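Apologies for my clumsy wording, but could you write out the amino acids of a protein and the tokens describing how it folds?
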Amino acid sequence: MAEPEKIPAQHQDSMPADEYKMDPAPDYTPRHPGVGKLKGKVAFISGGDSGIGRAVAALFAREGANVAIAYLEEDEDAARTKEIVEREGGEALLIRGDLAVKSHAEDAVRQTVETFGRLDILINNCAQQWVDEDIETLSEERLRRTMDSNVMAYFFCTQAALPHLKEGASIINTTSVNAFKGNDSLIAYSTTRGASLALARSLASNLSDRGIRVNAVAPGPVWTPFIPGSMPAEQVEGFGSGTKFGRPAQPWEVATSYLFLASSDGSFFTGQTLHPNGGTIVNA
């Protein structure tokens, strides 16, 4: 096995951070030819401009979907993702703004349905994180910002999407390995990921009579803009080397879990969580 590429020290003073500034660039590229698993489908992906969201958008487009890419303010990353989706044969709609504002979440879903005529897949993926080792000094502003992005936006997007989702539709929440094992330096973030997990499980039961499946994906360390945006440069160096593979996941390796759950391959899955985490054993 080749020696994993070591992540060099780097930091960005923004959250969400920018993928185009990362070294090395994250790998979003799907590995296999599309076979039409999502042909004719429309997906709404929050946080779709970069990281896992970009990889999901690329893979969904390769499998035949059109994609609405909702993002906060990372215009250059979003434009690049739109190009990627179009190169894969899909149509892309860029929607800029804060999904933690309920009226914007409603407008974003409305734009999606007006543009593409339908909505079949909701990916609740937008999030922010910061290192917060000391809960006593965690500011109210940062705590509320994390909760808004990682929890409230999921509720608002789901509420807006449900009138348009028909039997056979799929909702997938991004959670984290930290929702299962905790993380003493990501207390607020881990708490919100526990909430997105509980939301998926609760919705799965609530929406089963409507034929809407709801599941979650709980990644471990992934090389996305989260990392240089939330961690000091010295912590970013060698990121992910503690996994069983000696490296972090690349976004494309996580995106395949979303495709499985969104397509008919996952037709008997609801209320479940997939764990692309590099070998951490958790109680699923």
In short: The longest strand covers residues 66-71. The mean pLDDT is 95.
